[in-house]
Structures are given as structure tokens and as C-alpha cells.
Amino acid sequence: MPNISDFKAKTVDFKPGERNVFLHLLTQCNLACRHCYINPVQHGTNILPKETALDWLRLFARPERASNLVLLGGEPTLHPDLAAIIRAAKALRYAVTVDSNGFLFHDFLERVRPEELDFLSFSLDGPYAAVNDPIRGEGVFEVCTANLRRAVALGFRTSLICTVSALNIEYLHQMPALLAELGVRRFFIQVIGLRGKSAAADANSLQVEPARWLEFVPETACQAARLGIHVTYPKVFLEPDEAFSCAGQVAENYFIFPNGRVYRCPLCEDYSIHSLRIENGQLLRRDGLNEDRFFSLRIPEGCVMNNLLQPDNIEYLPDGQPTHRISCCMLKQEIHP
Ligand code: SF4
Ligand code: SF4
Hints:
Layout: E1 10-12, E2 19-24, H1 40-43, H2 50-60, E3 67-72, H3 82-91, E4 94-100, H4 108-111, E5 119-123, H5 129-136, H6 140-154, E6 158-164, H7 175-182, E7 186-191, H8 203-206, H9 210-226, E8 230-234, E9 237-238, H10 247-250, E10 252-256, E11 261-263, E12 276-279, E13 282-285, H11 304-309, E14 325-326, E15 332-335
Parallel strand pairs: 2-3, 2-10, 3-4, 4-5, 5-6, 6-7, 7-8
Antiparallel strand pairs: 1-15, 8-15, 9-14, 10-11, 11-12, 12-13
Helix pairs in contact: 2-3, 7-9
The chain binds iron/sulfur cluster (2 copies).
């Protein structure tokens, strides 16, 4: 059996030419997670009609280049035409992932074949119900894990997203064993963001201190890799010799909402500063003081948006320099088993 030290996290630089399209099909959800980032005031309450969804897929498709498509919500399986949208996306040569809370509405597993989907991703925030359910809702652990088992048994490639907050970080090290037992192939560890509900009143009780993140996350990632699971987690803190770069400048990420807003940076999603919008089937650039004006700014703290939104999370040395630079939130660490 390999040692924990045999697994080393690799920083995944933004790959030139790679494209990631995150399409929010709706903002409705059957759950009310404590850290939910969905913001209907900013992103509307409409369900993207099937024909519009297909038009927008064509708008962002570049079949000659590797493009990842993540279909999400709200809860995307609440969309009655999700199976048809997945099929259309595959025909346009997207690699398609569906991010579900695990409830899998509209008989999802019966209406989509495993080979039509690159990954079916489930969200779970604890290794058992007593940790997960106070965050995601009563009974959610049982439904989510039962559907995950069904999906694996049917041959779907599955991944799992765990959003780490102060409520569950102590239990994170118990997740890899659960994932291995469930047959999950990929594990995405996310950090709680200051968006949506987590930006509201009890935000401070959810935030993870840097020392705790560094204490728990890299080691849990190594444990999962040791069990044969591919792990991805955000870089968060740059090493002194690592260069800072902003995905808004060097990568192609699109975060698309059903009201037509298109952001290049997910940290900007709570504000009306999207740099692009879809209007009459066309992708248009917006003039004015929008997110793209921030991408070229360089500050000692690293990411400008992080510094604007969460200034309290940055600690300073006596000489006024920040203790750590914060990386772009899209910069990931990966560990391959
Ligand atoms: S499942 Fe996702 S969209 Fe639904 S409430 Fe939870 S975080 Fe929000
Ligand atoms: S998180 Fe920061 S560094 Fe990354 S795209 Fe947004 S502004 Fe740029």
C-alpha cells in the first residue's frame, strides 16, 4: 500500500484553450442548504425553456476545442427537459457533467444512459446524516446516498462535491472511506464562499480559518487518493514562489444564468457586474465598470475580488504585507491516485 507521502498535490494551471461552460438551467431547488449560493434576486426565477437552452449551447459550442459543460441550478434534474439538453450537448461535443443534490427528479436515471453523460455529480456535506443533514436538510443524506448507489450500479461515472465549512471540516477525513464504499470516482472539495446565503447573517459561523483548511484538506485529499479516488480542491493560498494569475484573463470560463447574465468570475455572481449578456440569441459585451475591469489589477493580496468581498480573511505581517496571497478561486490542486 502506498504511503500518504507518495501522493503529491499538483497545481493545475489554467490550460490554454480549455473552456468551461457552467449553465444554470434554473434557480429553483427542493432543498434549502445553509450555504446555498443561488441568488434569485440577481439571477431570476425562470426555468430556461428547452429551445433557449439548446440555442445557448450552440452559442458557446466550439466543437474543435475541448469544452466542459456543467449543467446545474438550483437543482437541474427539476428541469423537465434535462435529458434532451444533455443529448444536444453531447451532439455538440461538450464533455457533460450534471451537478445534482442527489434527488434526481423526473426519473433521471431511467431517462439518461450512462454513456450519454461524462459525470453525474452528487453533493454531500458530511460522512453521515448527523453531519450532512443539519447543513443540507433532514433526510437528505439517505436519499442522496441511495441514489448514488443506484447510479453507480447502473454504470454512471460519479463524482461528489463536498462544501467545507466550519460546520463539517472536522468530519472531512471520514469522507474518503464513504466515497470508496459508494464507488465514487472523483472527489471535489470546495471551500465555503461568501455568496448567496453564506454571505448573509451567519456567514462568520460558516467560515473556515486558513490554518484549519491547511490542517484538514490536503491530508484528506491524500487519503482519498490512497483509496483510488481522483481529488480536486482549490489552491486558496499561493506559495511565495508561485505566480498569481486571474482566470478572467487567461482562461475561458462562462457562468451563465437563466436571465441571460454571463459572468467570467464566479466571485462576482452576487452583483450586477457581469461582463457579458445573452440578448436575442447573441453574446454581447457590457460596457461600464464590470468584473473584467478588475481582472488586470495587481495587489499584494492576490485576487482583487476576494480582497473586496472578504477583506477580513486576509492577515497581515507587521510590515503591512499580507501573510499569504490568495489565489484565483478557479486555481485547483489535483491528486491522481
Ligand atoms: S442543493 Fe444546491 S441549489 Fe439546492 S439549496 Fe442546496 S446548495 Fe442551493
Ligand atoms: S476569483 Fe479573482 S483571480 Fe479568479 S477570476 Fe475572479 S477576480 Fe480573477
